[in-house]
From TrEMBL, chain B:
GN (gene name): Psen2
Record protein name field: Presenilin-2
Broad class of the protein's primary localization: endoplasmic reticulum
Membrane topology label: Multi-pass membrane protein
Gene Ontology terms describing biological process: amyloid-beta formation; calcium ion homeostasis; membrane protein ectodomain proteolysis; Notch signaling pathway; protein processing; somite development
A GO CC term assigned to this protein in UniProt: Golgi membrane
Amino acid sequence: MTVCVFFGCTFIAFGPAISLFIFTVARDPLRVIFLIAGAFFWLVSLLLSSLVWFIAVQISNKENASLQKGLLIFGVVLSVFLQEAFRFGYYKLLKKANEGLMALNQDDTMPISIRQLAYVSGLGFGFMSGAFSVVNILADSLGPGTVGIYGDPPHYFVSSAFMTMAIILLHMFWGVVFFDACEKKQWLSLAVVVCTHLLVSCLTFLNPQYEGSLIPAYVIAFVMGAWAFFISGGSLRNLRLCLTCKDKDFLLANHRPR
Amino acid sequence: MGSCIKDKFYIFQVEVIFSQSYVSAKLVGLASQPGCHNGRTEGGCCWDLFFPRSHYGSIPLMVLPYEYPQGKLGIFVLWNRSVGDLGYYQGELQGIVIPSLKGFHLTWKCFQCASTGSTPDSGLKEARFPALVVRVRRRVDEIPWNTGSMNTSTDEEEFCNEKTALMSAESPSVPLYDDGRGSQRAKESQTVRHRSSSSQINNTDREDHSSSRVSVTDSEVEELSLKYGAKHVIMLFVPVTLCMVVVVATIKSVSFYSTKNGQLIYTPFTEDTDSVGQRLLNSVLNTLIMISVIVVMTILLVLLYKYRCYKVCPTPFSCAGSCYHDQPKWAQAQCSKATMRLLTDARICMCVHNQPGTPTIPRAKEVFKTYNVAMDYPTVALIIWNFGVVGMICIHWKGPLQLQQAYLIMISALMALVFIKYLPEWSAWVILGAISIYDLVAVLCPKGPLRMLVELAQERNEPIFPALIYSYEEACNNRPEDGDLSRNTAASENRVGAVEELEEERGVKLGLGDFIFYSVLVGKAAATASGDWNTTLACFVAILIGLCLTLLLLAVFKKALPALPISITFGLIFYFSTDYLVRPFMDTLAEHQFYI
């Protein structure tokens, strides 16, 4: 509960996302705009799901703890479905906008490709989701207090931070896979995305037992990451060339001699 | 050698290049005979085109400042280098510099050969004079022209002297460039002519070192216009975000602003009433008073502007705004900028002070108190005095652009903080809503005061009071009193950050009042919402999206638009829904550590 915890958890949770933003998105104004629009869509989905949950809670019996927990679980599941629905809606909107742009051009050149849009929108969803999950917790970590004094798990902050990082990366990968599945009309991939999202959220129900939620979340993140990588045209050869700095196209584009 | 001129009839191709920031002309070829090349007609005859005002003999190009009014663009000389003083054409190029090629009009008068000619008015891009063929093209690449030096790569330049003149080269033919048709032009009545070039590419075209495509087609124009549109949006996002961040940071750290300590005289009714109805009524009354003060101030401002009382300078504190984009009037070839309209808002008790420094004194005191910094009066006085004076200079006169922007942001943040502290809760929300509606009405109605202000400013081609608008590029120094200076200075130093844009707008400007009210909304969300950061974030994103949509509408409609309604509406919706609906949900989730 110090500044150290605050900064540590902030960098754990948002480090990868912010560096991705700075290095890949911040230079291009179009990408920034689409990122913010993606964040907005996630926010609207959250709003709708909270509305439904709120109404359900108001009309239910507030004393019954297990009912409340059940309603919460229902809220989580509903929220997952709504998020994916809004992701689909965002995809449709972007396609329409792109079509409009392409109709105006005679040359079929688009200023931003659908893959970039997938990445950026996934990152937008991730940012907003991560921010809403963890910002209040981070603000609390600045103040005085002792975690776990009543028997609650003492690693609350760190585990929240790690979970947030996983969620942000997952949203990004889900965005890429989702858009690609929509482009190629592979509904099975789409279903897999929705199911993994549901799985990750439902695993957090186990939560004071962080092994049950964090480790599978990271495994799923790694798998989704690899899937998104291969979908976007990556391959082991590319990876090897990139890591050993022998990728000529990349070097030329960045004016680095090798 | 004199026979070089008298016996032969040369058609010189002069390319006049229009862009957002300059007009230039160059000699690109001589089409009268095959084997001609830039500047070379035949053995011993090398021609240059230059304007005597530029370096004589060294730079064959003249860069004209964009703000050049109609009239004489310059005297230029077709100079036969080999012959020298004995053989040249001197002529006068007159024209109207306009932002687009819609109404391009150029006349040519040759003193020696008494030939005249002019281009027709309707956007035709070629005119043949007896000795001059003028073709125009629109420069669409991004690199700003570097005045006073050869911008183009000098290694590409043909070195034309006696020796090389003997060599013949292939015939140059400058392709005609497309006018550049963006989607916005569909709204205009002008018919754009698409001229696709079928002639061969001039391979010594010095201009195109930056763009590999010679002919500008629609798609490139469209892509560039989209990129430039997005750039404008980001250019406004950054200061709005900064202002909001400053306000939220101050609110969260200095508790002075969250404590209620009295009210402004503009909101006399208190909200500590017993019943909800009474409280609502009081807040509505407060709003009515505030809005009427604002209306009165706006009308006063418009009247002052109309009757040219520029000396009565409105303070930096007094504006909200919205955005618009004007239809370029080609007859007035000045920079047709997209400026934002103004809405004066109520001044607070600091209204007698005209300086940026004064309201910072009580703020500084609060900040020092919070951080327990020991400070003495002389130091504070010195710092504040300097702060204020530099601010005044920067905003009302000249100063580095970054500093001016920083001051405007600081001032907006301070105003917003004052509003957040002194406006009672419900009144604040009702005022925000009412201001958006007033904004809408005042800008879009034909007799609205702000619309009149904007139209006046456009007619006179002046920027509206620089203290009331935030812009991301150097304000044109077309102040009424130094209009003559602008011609000479504008070309030389004031193109800081002037990215060449495709459409007519110079840049999008946002009124300071917009900054203030956005920050008030976000600051109030930070100060009063119990959901803390979630609500603040939601309002922030909502305001940015509203701004984005407003700028999109601006690009579509190209006229003055209010910047407040959409953003404030989104902000209010998201504030209340996040505070009442999302907050309990997220809090309950965080309690159990569930993630969605």
